[in-house]
Write a structure and sequence with these properties.
The chain has a two-stranded antiparallel sheet with strand order 1-2. The longest helix is centred in the middle third of the chain and has 31 residues. It has a single domain, classed as Up-down Bundle (Growth Hormone, Chain: A), CATH 1.20.1250.20. With 434 residues, it is an all-alpha fold.
Length: 434
């Protein structure tokens, strides 16, 4: 009787492991930044630009990957992308100047975009929509655990073996997991959605092939994408809220170890260890709690995913202020509590984005989401914070993520009224509830 659940759970495990590795690979660089700066003699702004360039290419690649995934095998694209980014991570061994490291890092972004655009839609189609908050909570556990793994790996190995060595260790599992993904069975698109929308953007008589039909299909596909997704208020408010959350989280991830190292007197290893432990513990608890809380409230209010995300961002602001300006025993607990609230929205906010669009345009919608959240979020934030740190101080630079948290919260509170109703235990959430 348990056999039908085996394949979805196996796929969830493999994809979550790949997602974990995705974040570990990119966060190793954050852990070794001071050593890279010493070797290449570069400024804080240049270090921040490494991440901005990585995410810029990541952002540009996503809109090309999304439409491909809506038409072709998602599994194949995931496998090829994992092999590509793992190979480039391995090539860090031959980077001997800032320009080479910049090129390598930007190309890794192209490879990772293939996975992050497609994998959430793959996971969403494995399970019913009324448990997606919890399922995505498990999938997005990879963000804090992988991020912490990058900090811990780089922070421990780099002082002993050089900053390049951790990248060797981070690259190898990617090849193994890519091969494991080959054996996954791809789920039917939208098989558990309460509303089926396959080809609902097409006029009658245009479901077939031929050049004219191809052009008509793409015209109506793009029209639906623009009016129902990009300009759809449920998708737009969730995406803009996520963009400013991403600005905050991206800047904090890049600069917190350096902040503890340069302005609070921690050693590089101790700074990465302390922040890595905070991220992994908070991230696990917050991802599970946020997903569970969003699902628990969903039968009572259709806007639960927006509410949990908005409230968590708002609650984190005063704690983050304490974390920045407290220099005594209160500092690390404040960082831990602020990180918890910042990460609490991960699962519900992603569930809000996924549920705001139909299954057969979902990968393209996520590609649009990725483009927006990065161009407004963690593409500019590391460089902007680095520029402020060069002009003033790193402590002053952290004011920018705090402002972004407030903007994110305001947008998500406003977006609550646009939340779509979804099926809950065989019935729809009441449309009148917010």
């Amino acid at each position: 009787m348990a056999q039908p659940d085996l394949q979805p759970r196996s796929a969830l495990i493999v994809l979550t492991a790949l997602n974990l590795l995705n974040y570990a690979d990119r966060n190793v660089l954050f852990a070794v930044q001071p050593l890279v700066q010493d070797e290449f003699h570069i400024s804080n702004a240049q270090v921040g630009y490494l991440t901005s360039a990585f995410l810029g290419f990541y952002m540009v690649a996503a809109p090309f990957v999304g439409p491909l995934a809506d038409r072709y095998s998602r599994k194949l694209i995931i496998v090829l992308g994992a092999l590509f980014w793992s190979g480039l991570t391995l090539l860090t061994a031959v980077t001997h100047n800032y320009t080479e490291l910049l090129v390598r890092h930007t190309l890794v972004g192209v490879g990772e975009a293939t996975f992050v655009t497609i994998a959430p839609t793959f996971v969403a189609d494995l399970f019913h929509e009324n448990v997606r908050g919890r399922i995505l909570g498990v999938f997005y556990l990879a963000i804090p655990v992988g991020s912490a793994g990058g900090y811990l790996l780089g922070g421990y190995l780099a002082p002993h073996y050089g900053w390049r060595f951790p990248f060797y260790v981070a690259a190898v599992p990617g090849f193994v997991l890519a091969l494991a993904a080959v054996f996954l069975t791809e789920p039917e698109r939208g098989q558990f959605d309460s509303v089926k929308d396959e080809a609902d953007w097409l006029p009658a008589g245009f479901q077939g092939g031929g050049l004219r039909r191809f052009l008509v299909r793409n015209y109506f596909f793009l029209r639906k994408l623009w009016f129902d997704v990009v300009l759809g208020p449920a998708f737009l408010t969730a995406t803009l809220g996520m963009a400013f959350m991403t600005y905050s989280l991206g800047g904090i991830q890049v600069w917190m170890p350096k902040f503890l190292f340069s302005e609070r007197g921690y050693t590089l290893e101790a700074a990465n260890f302390a922040f890595g432990i905070i991220i992994v513990v908070d991230g696990i608890l917050a991802a599970l709690a946020g997903g569970w809380l969003g699902d628990y409230l969903l039968p009572r209010m259709k806007s639960s995913y927006y509410l949990v995300s908005a409230a968590s961002m708002l609650l984190g602001i005063p704690i983050m202020i304490v974390a920045l300006f407290a220099k005594g025993p209160a500092m690390m607990p404040a960082i831990a509590v602020a990180a918890f609230f910042l990460l609490l929205n991960t699962a519900p906010l992603n569930a809000a984005v996924i549920n705001s669009v139909g299954a057969h345009i979902r990968a393209t919608a996520i590609a649009v989401n990725i483009f927006i959240i990065h161009i407004l979020g963690d593409v500019p934030s590391p460089t902007m914070m680095g520029w402020v740190a060069d002009k003033r101080s790193l402590q002053a630079a952290f004011i920018l993520p705090i402002i972004a948290m407030g903007i994110s919260s305001a947008i998500l509170f406003y977006g609550m009224k646009f939340a779509p109703a979804v099926a809950v235990d065989g019935r729809s959430a009441e449309a009148g509830k917010t």
